[in-house]
Amino acid sequence: xxxxxxxxxxxxxxxxxxxxxxxxxxxxxxxxxxxxxxxxxxxxxxxxxxxxxxxxxxxxxxxxxxxxxxxxxxxxxxxxxxxxxxxxxxxxxxxxxxxxxxxxxxxxxxxxxxxxxxxxxxxxxxxxxxxxxxxxxxxxxxxxxxxxxxxxxxxxxxxxxxxxxxxxxxxxxxxxxxxxxxxxxxxxxxxxxxxxxxxxxxxxxxxxxxxxxxxxxxxxxxxxxxxxxxxxxxxxxxxxxxxxxxxxxxxxxxxxxxxxxxxxxxxxxxxxxxxxxxxxxxxxxxxxxxx
Length: 291
Prior knowledge:
Layout: H1 3-15, H2 18-24, H3 29-43, E1 48-51, E2 54-57, H4 59-87, E3 90-95, H5 102-114, E4 119-124, E5 141-146, E6 153-161, E7 163-168, H6 198-204, H7 218-228, E8 232-235, E9 244-248, E10 255-262, H8 268-282
Parallel strand pairs: 3-4, 3-5
Antiparallel strand pairs: 1-2, 5-10, 6-10, 7-8, 7-9
């Protein structure tokens, strides 16, 4: 007897009505009736008494209902245990930003030492989704940056980094010791795609609507500045690459690195990863400023 057919039988036995059982199972009534008839043929006895008064269980049906409930309950527990075992074997981590960051390298080493048999699957996210797929259920935990929509998420801060204006090396503002957002008000900025988390997008545009080329990943930000002379913001201490400079922005709050996961996630690997990430971030050394 197939588990699916037994689920059909239990639905009819509990509803004592084929129409209501079909609705509960999200199927039409004819295939449900055919499945019950095949089950009765397999059992070698009628399971229901059908009359103008309605449907009732036969003695054989009563026995099957008791056993089917127990079997289906055991099957559900089995699925749960298998799913838990799979979750304890794999962890999908979303990354936003520089995967070569010393903190990321240190975290990878520390987590591997603590969980040598766990396979970590990495999903690098674009700039439109700072949760790296958490809201969509694509990752278990994310190493990312705030601010963003935290609805349904737990977030732990790892550190804070100053930000600056990303400019071409020959830009008239490139030689300044520092800038403020007003200095960039009339410039074209690179912008994130439509549908970007609005809290995140507002931070990286300096709180103002901007116009300019659309970028989806960090490398596209740098290329937009290099090729078009547009401006934008980036971490002050990350190397922008040849032909580009980063000038401190005096009126911008720091960019805060965080680890985030879904609220209520009972996976012990998620909590372990967050703990290891916090410890690795606590050992970060002084950051080198790139110009």
